[in-house]
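Quick one:
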Amino acid sequence: MQFALPPRRSPNSLPGAHSSRLPLYRRKQLKTVAIFAVAILTLLYLVSHLFFSSSTSIGAPAGTAGVVIVTLLDRQSLSQSYIDKIIANREDYAKRHGYTNFFASVSDYEEAISDDPRSWALIPAVRHAMAAHPKSKYFFHLSPHALIMNPTTSLKSHLLDRTRLESVMLKDVPIVPPDSIIKTFALEEKDVDFILTQDSEDLSPSSFILKNGDFARFFLDLWFDPLFRNYNFAKAEIHGLDHIMQWHPTVLARTALVPQRMLNAYSKDSSGASLDGSYKDGDFVIRFPACDEGKAQDCDELDPYYTMWWKKAKGS
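Output:
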């Protein structure tokens, strides 16, 4: 009987002699490919990250307004004729400079503010404007008891330009006048996200500019926190802001104070203006604080200034 014999092997060949070289070579190839792949993926990540950062650093793409003017109207306490004047003032200014208006009603936020003073509604109103205009760069909140008196002046030339802002911001001054131990920082324009004024007693959020971005959303959420709203501050959101600025350096480090007349001049009949904070002809904005406290549906103090503005608007 014959049995099949296994094929003979060459005396010089050892099991796996050829196959051992091939996997080693392939491993080197794969290692090289993996290194290149990781390098390419890292590069793509960095490029995409930089692009994403620049796109969310708040430019104003074509077709979007660089500035949104936010006006919160309490239609339950203001007459329609008064509201019409405020709207006309804002619309004229926005049309001149390519800005967008966002008119909100306090009643839209009654559920959010619950039993809190109605003035707290300015915060969700600004948040609402940001959600409605996510690509706009700046949000300019302006009290309904204020008029833009210099219609030809753009916010950029007046305040937002880098050189301009850095030259007028108040440095090393008490946050809450007259003698708060917490003082403003010396900032560069690129580090500023929040611009506002103060009067003789407090910060004055009736008129402020907020730059769109992560800080803005964080700041508005912090300011509207129930902890502050339930604290029963005498001046509600104003004293809440005073507190935040003095106890939260993260916010203060992004905030620029400017002289009152640049953004929030008080009428001569209103008390509480800071030194040189009362309106003078040519100022950008005039505000009527007494109207916030009045019960009447019309603010008679506004009428002569509205006539002055109307003549300027028609003549320019």
